[in-house]
């Protein structure tokens, strides 16, 4: 079930409820002329008053800096040569998910890393600090 919500501080949102009852507000926020897709996990349908829109805006507008931090983190964690990135970007096409509180993630849907196939790599944050990543290469399609 989907409904539109107009006029949030970060633009128009669509509310989507999955088959298992999870509720997400989803939208796009334009940064440097490019739309960045994002999802916000809601505690329940219509509970937007609990969303910290300024926290979300600050993370999304920092997409370039957070991508750089995530790339450096992955290079370190995976033991890669920082000079060996080549022409194709290591990670690309960031999509944000905000889980509530200070927890959020960036899914890099594309990239030259082997673990980016077929679903990308998920870098997890708590506030501004990376707390880990999820290798989605072995994930099953939902």
Report on the structure:
18% of the residues lie in helices and 44% in strands. The chain contains two helices and eight strands, in the order E-E-E-E-H-H-E-E-E-E. It has helices at 53-61, 63-78, and strands spanning 2-8, 11-17, 23-31, 34-42, 92-100, 103-110, 121-126, 129-135. The longest helix is centred in the middle third of the chain and has 16 residues, at 63-78.
Overview in brief:
The protein has two helices and eight strands. The protein is of the alpha+beta class and 142 residues long.
Strand order of the largest sheet: 1-2-3-4-5-6-7-8
> Which structural class do the helices and strands define?
alpha+beta
With helices defined by DSSP (H or I, 4 residues minimum), what is the helix count?
Answer: 2
As residue ranges, the low-confidence spans are none
Helices and strands, in order, run as EEEEHHEEEE
Strand content: 35-45%
The helicity comes to: 10-25%
The largest pleated sheet is described as: 8 strands, mixed
Query: What separation lies between the terminal Cα atoms?
Result: 17 Å
Shape: globular
Radius of gyration: 16 Å
Arithmetic mean pLDDT: 88
Tally of DSSP β-strands: 8
């Amino acid at each position: 079930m989907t409904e539109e919500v107009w006029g949030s501080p970060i633009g128009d949102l669509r509310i989507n409820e999955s088959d298992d009852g999870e509720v997400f507000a989803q939208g796009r926020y334009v940064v440097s002329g490019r739309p960045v897709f994002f999802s916000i996990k809601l505690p329940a349908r219509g509970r937007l008053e609990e969303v910290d829109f300024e926290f979300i805006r600050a993370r999304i507008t920092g997409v370039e800096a957070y991508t750089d931090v995530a790339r450096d983190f992955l290079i370190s964690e995976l033991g890669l040569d920082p000079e060996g990135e080549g022409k194709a970007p290591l990670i690309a096409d960031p999509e944000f998910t905000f889980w509530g509180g200070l927890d959020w993630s960036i899914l890099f849907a594309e990239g030259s890393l082997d673990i980016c196939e077929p679903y990308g790599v998920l870098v997890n944050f708590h506030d501004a600090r990376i707390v880990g990543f999820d290798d989605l290469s072995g994930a099953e399609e939902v």
